[in-house]
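Researcher: Here's a chain I'd like modeled. Treat it as a single chain, no partners, no ligands.
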Amino acid sequence: MKVGIIGAGAVGRACLLALTMRGPADEIVVVDRTPERAEGEIADIRYGAILSQSVRLRDGDYEELRGAGLVMITIGLNEKSGGATDRNDKQGRLRLLQKNAEIYRGIVPLIVDAAPGAVLLVVTDPPDPLAFLTRQLVRHERVVSTGTLLDSLRFRFHLAERLQVDPRSVEAQVLGEHGTSAVFLWSGVRVGGVTLDKIDGGGEAAMRGEIEKTVRAANITIIEGIGASQLGIGVLCARLAEMVARDERAVVPVGSFNENYGVTLSLPSVVGREGVLRVFEPAMTEKEAAALRESAAVLRGAQEGLGG
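Model: Modeled as a single isolated chain. Structure tokens:
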């Protein structure tokens, strides 16, 4: 499968590296508004790529995306440059929306003209309303937001650390917005199929606040250390590329437009060749269901600000 990456900044670079190492693509094209940067990224990685699975690496313009099965859109203002790094700011990543929406309105038509059959993976923050906008611009359903998958991985990691188990043995999901209104599905946590209350001995309530606070601020902690949250999302995007390329139909919490809520938000979703193929709504407590409705309301307000 041919994969396009729009943007050769920190996140685009991480996606390129992860894609090259994991091997779901037989061709990767990087497009950037500064062609020299895309050319430099390709020139840098192609030597190490000799040690990975065979893949053709290219830089180019939008026309080079022709035939792509998946295009990752990473371009835009990031949290640090956009002033979205205040841990107490309820707006969070949504502060970036208007400026990044302007960028998307310019580039998405170019992408779809070159690769009309591609699945479009929206990585830029805030991914959910930008995926909503992208869907409006392309007029098809093959638009996926990275959504709360990264939040869910962070949730699994910190929960596993607390329980002293391997994160791969933990089932835990964050739903709704990839942002301040994200919903932690504590009622659905399982470790080896066992519910949390049977493992933690009643300590669940004590750990909730601490873990949620850590996960919600994980991006800011990373930005304070290295300037941009990039490597985790890069690996995540490569994994999603595998699901599309292999038509895996794996179930993960990513964002797509949901008619019931009227917004693009994350729920457990079947991901395959055409993007999100089906969406499940898991069992929730009434408190979690109310929080999900509130998260949808936050996203609806953001979407209305786009004129949609």
